[in-house]
Structure formats: structure tokens, C-alpha cells
């Protein structure tokens, strides 16, 4: 029996390793366009920033490791050009040659491609997207000879890159079409706190406007935003990622509203073809709508589910809460579940609790401000939470992920038992205080 | 209407402030033996260590603040000598005089007293307990002229003090009767990791033996442990705390197995007398047995419940999980819910999941080891968790507190959605990995 996995990102390689964990005999072949595998794209901004020494550090395994340690074959720098789901075959090209390979199971882990709007100048030298290690390496080199950069798109990756460039001494402008930064992750009021931090650090931010044009003779010299030209030696297009669904279409898999359609077992409409990661659509836990969840953690959890089902172990992938966290300089920010903005857009009425507190006892040195916005449905169940603070945000988001998943009520959360020691927390846990604030608004 | 509160610890003052929050008219009088109020006893070791500059820092409010800002009267350095619950009166002594005061509601927030075993030499100069700011100040002074210290008792406070003395350059020996350190908080295997850390830091630890005798002519010169004398200039008795229940007895309140008996509303057997904090007994969430919960957080939560009931707002205190955390030097340790040891003692059969991981992505600088032990009942519900690690332990304990409270199942936890960014977490959250490890042991 052979499983072919197309793609070597978090989803693809987790599927491969998990199959091997439970099945010593299955032949596992990964085909990937990438040269480097098993790296963490989320780490690229931190290499650019200099927090992580080199790109080699973020590559955790080589294809040779996979062969030697787990008997997984990885065919790198190879492009799958066709999937024949009737004959259970894929066709791929490598080094100019075409090859065919049969499969019993196929896993589409084709990921996403950075979306670059079709604007003038997008192909000039000095315009980059951020996806692969190679992208990172090229950006790193180009930044060495650059003085200024425009980052188009104020999602987490865009802002992490912006901060990284600032730390390296470049003049940085972020341009975002939406009326706020982090439009997918945070509500406007919470995003504003992140914006203030970045501006204090010297990053310029322009909202409500797209990059209309990139100008320059042979290479980037500036961008046009509104009726102004912003001078820049380089441009980072962090304008979102689109799921790669071409191969799924060729295979005849059903495509949903946003991406490849899968069931709870990560199975496509063709029973022996699975799909995981950024190329699939999922169900939102709160709204029950289909959505995208382009996170490494989602890909990993989906890879485990797909692999288990392939080897015959029961496993299901649950609707997502899109728990996210980012660290930008001295600021951690995170969100999980429904935002108030998105509640509005979905016609869900919510009650909001807030808390401003510190991460340690008031008198304990090094404590940092933390702000929480907690969102409850009108029945009093927690449905979302956003946190911006100097430390210890990630695990609080995780705690709220559990709370939302289990439908914790506002009164339960206000009275929840939390641990305390002066160097690591306040005697009144901010999560409980935010719930207490909301509780007073119910009657 | 007047509420008298006896005691100015976390429980007493939270009750006072919460009454005032909801009722502007109630007269609120706090009577306390303490000179300083509104300080955090948990902070004393960190002042001794030098992390916090001075004892003034940990006193957050003065009695004058309470009067001015909240119209709460605090009578300090006063001892309540009688409670007449028939006539709703307390009698207290201050400056050698006796006073009587009527109440409509009485709140016993009498706390606990450090238990010092009745051994020879316990009254010598140089023997201390750790409870009040004054204790801390005396210890601080005495340590300046001391070269060596024995800490009797290896609970959190004992170990925090031991580490603090070591940081100040004293020779430190911890003596614990039990076969492990942190016997109430952690299982032996997890406690062993903390012991290794402390020993590496130079703290000597003797287990399975009590301090039998303290020797010295006018002041401490050493302690007898087994058949050996350990030389020491000072001795810290961190051998536990006993609930102060004398006034409750005088009032005629029912006493339970360990301390004052209260219902979910924190009401004693006498309807207009409430009790909160270290002087009451509570119900354990998992075992349903009565137990003690001598934590500042418990006292705060109980104070809110008592106050709300006094002013006529419905509120109930839930059974406790005894969530605890401590930071000792570079190590955070915490526990919540049932330990495997205590499960054994209660005849509950459990399945354990474990995980050794890092607090950041493997390649991200500054990541620290973290170890998790997770405990499930035989139905697959999580009932306990212990964590020892270099950072980010407290919020994970909090997440597990929610999980235990809501009865999260092992498979749910293994597949739970957690957030990820390289500087603050691993793509596979250690909590999920520990659950995954346990899941494989179920069939």
C-alpha cells in the first residue's frame, strides 16, 4: 500500500510522520516543489529581525532525515502536474522529466500561494512575498542594501515583518486597505493598541488605502498610495494567501466556498483522497459557517486526523476557533473564537467584558500591562476572546480556547479558580476580571 | 446596618471592598491584630530574595486609604476576645482597653497561624515563622548577621524561602518529614525535578526526617535531625498553617473536620455569621471530600461570595481544585486537581499522560524545558495536572483548571485547538501532547 502526499508543509509532513507512527509497512511518498522541507514559515520574520540567527536554524529536518529515521521518501523540487483519480496515479515533473506514480491513498497538502493583487509594478525587482525559506533568504539579502520598505497588508505576518525591518534600521511603512490592522484577528479597538505600539516603535501605518501601484525603473523605487508616492527600496506583499486547489480540481474533488471540501475525517469527495492544511476549508465553531484556518497548528491537527483515518484509526477534526497569537517586539497579541466585529456581521448579539491589568503582582518588578476583551453570546456562553499584553498572552488564549470549546458560562468564568504567585500572576486573574465585568452587564 | 469583619488578610479585605462595591450604606468595620493591612504574604520570600526591593512595596493600601477611598473602618492592632452571637456583639481589646461593637453581619476572616511542632528550642532567638510583614522584616534583619539557615518544611513557602536565602549567600538546608518535597502540591516524580533544580542551585535537602530539636545557648546554633547536628544561625519553621477557629467556637459556629464549616454562600451554622479564607474548610472538586484551601486566591473568591450574599446578591462558592503555582529562581511549578498520589490514597484509579517539551519553537532562542504530568480518571476525564518548567507554567495550570472544571475528555484535549507562534509556543502544544500520550493508554 502506498500513500502519496503532495506538499511538505506542516500538514503534509505531519500526515507522513503520523502514518508511519501507526503503520510500519505503508509506503509513504511526499512530493514537493520545495527544496527545503520541515521548516517553519512562521519563523521567517524572526530570522529577518535577527532574533533567530540563521535560516538554517529553522529547518528542522532534511529529506535524508525523513528517509533514515522514518522511512519516508521525499521527492523535492518536483511538481505534480496531474492527478488521475480514476487510475489512482499522479504525474510529476522533476529535472525536466515526467514520472508517474500509483497511490492507494492520496493526500493533498498543497497549501496556499501568497496573493499578489494585479497592480502595476508587482514584478519589479525588490517586490517580495513571504512564504518559503527561499523567500526569506532573498528578502534578507535585499534588505542589506535597502534603506526603506513598504509592507502591503497588516496581518500578523505583515506586522511581524514590519517590526523586523524596523529593528534592522530600515524606514518602514505598512499600508492596509482595511480600516484597522489585524482585520482577521482582532476587533478595531484591540488592534488599535497594537497599532499604537508599532507607531511608538517607529513603524508608519496607513489604513483604508491599498497599494495602487509600485513604481521604479528596473527595481522598486516607491509605491503609490492614494495620491502620494512613498519612497521605498523594497516592497513586501503580505496581502493574504490563496488556497492551492488546482490539483484537487484536476482530480475531480469537490471544491467548497473557499477551498477544497473535506469531511470530519479530512476526506475529500473522492474517498481515497484526503486533503489537509491551507488548501482546505473548515467549519467555524461559533458561526457554523465554512471558513479558512491558515495556521500551522490547524495543518498539524488535520494531518494527524487524515493519517489516522488512512491507517484505520477513528479520528475527527472539530470545527475551528482560529486561535492565533503573534509576538511583535515586546508585545504579544492573540485572539480566539468570535470577534465582536464578526458577531455583528453574522447578526449575533454579544456582550463584552473588558479588563486592564498586569501580568504580575502590582509590586513585582517586570510586570507588564495586559488587556483583555472577552465576548459572550446573549445566553452567557463565552464565544471569543482577544488579548494584547507584554507577556503570557499565548497560554491565556489557550485557556480561552478550552473555555469556548466547552461553552463556559460568564458566571463560571468570573468565579473560576486560577493559580497565583506574585512573580507570575495577579491574585485576581485578568481573565476572571474580564468575565466579571461582562457578568455585570447581564441581568 | 453594620458588618464587622475580623481579620485583614485577602479574605477579610476582599469581603469589605466587595460589600462597599454593591452597597454604599452598609457600615463596614474590619478589626485586625495586624499593624499592616493589605499586603501579600506570598510576596515575603521575594523580598527576602531581593527581587522586590522592600517590604513597603508589598503593602498596597493603608487603613487610611480604606477609610478615604471606600469608607471602610479598619481597627488595627486590636484583638477580638469574644463573640456573642446571641446579642450580635463582638468584644475587642486595643491599647489595653476593652470595647464592644454590635453587628448585623459578622465575617470571620481569622486566617491561620503557622504551626510550630512542640520541639525543644522552638522559642530560641533565631527561630522564625513566615506569615506577616513583621515576620518578614525580622527575618530580613536576622539574615544579615547569619551565615546558615535550616528551613523546616518543604512546601512552597519553605522552598521559596530556602532559595531566597541561598541567593543571599547563606548556607541553606531544607528538612522535610515527608519522603518528597512539595508533598501537598506535586507527585513524587514531579517534585523530584524541583529538588534537582534546588540542589543544583546549592540548597541541601534532607527528606524523611523531622527537625527533632533546635539547639543553642541563647540563640539558635543548630538543629538535630536524625542523629546529626546541622549547624545553623537561624531556623525557619515552614511546617504548615493551622486554621484559627477559636472565635468561631466562642460564637458557637459549627466546626467541621478541619476548620469552620460553611455552606456554598460562605455562611456558618449561624445565619448572620459568615467565614472566609484559611479558617474555613471547603469541598474538593474531584474527591468531594472536605479539605483546606489555604491560598490567597481562594480567600479572595470566598470574600466576594460572602460579600454578595450579605448585600443580597446570589453567589455560590464552588468546590476547589487547589490550583497552585510557585516560582523558585528560574523554575515555575504548579499543580491543579487530583495528584496520582492522592488518587491512590482515595482509591481512584487513574491514567497518566506525560510530555517533555520546550516553551518555544525548538530553534527559537530562550526556550526552556517544560514537563507535564496529566491525570485522567478511568472514564477519560481529566482530573489533575502538574507542570514544572522554565516559564509559562501558571497560565497552563489555569487552562487545566478550566479543563478539569468542565470535565474535558482525553481525546478532546489531545485534539484541542491551541495557538502558536515560534517565540511563545511550540506548534504541538505540550498540554495536547501530554493528553495524546494518555490517550494511547486507554483502549
TrEMBL record, chains A, B:
InterPro entries: FAD-bd_OxRdtase (IPR050260), FAD/NAD-bd_sf (IPR036188), FAD/NAD-binding_dom (IPR023753), FAD/NAD-linked_Rdtase_dimer_sf (IPR016156), Pyr_nucl-diS_OxRdtase_dimer (IPR004099)
SUPFAM superfamilies from the UniProt entry: FAD/NAD(P)-binding domain, FAD/NAD-linked reductases, dimerisation (C-terminal) domain
Source organism superkingdom: Archaea
GO molecular function: oxidoreductase activity
UniProt KW keywords: FAD, Flavoprotein
Required cofactor names: FAD
PANTHER family: NITRITE REDUCTASE [NAD(P)H] (PTHR43429:SF3), PYRIDINE NUCLEOTIDE-DISULFIDE OXIDOREDUCTASE DOMAIN-CONTAINING (PTHR43429)
UniProt organism field: Methanotorris formicicus Mc-S-70
Residues in Pyridine nucleotide-disulphide oxidoreductase dimerisation domain copies: 330-425
Gene3D superfamilies with a match to the protein in the record: FAD/NAD(P)-binding domain
Protein known as: FAD-dependent pyridine nucleotide-disulfide oxidoreductase
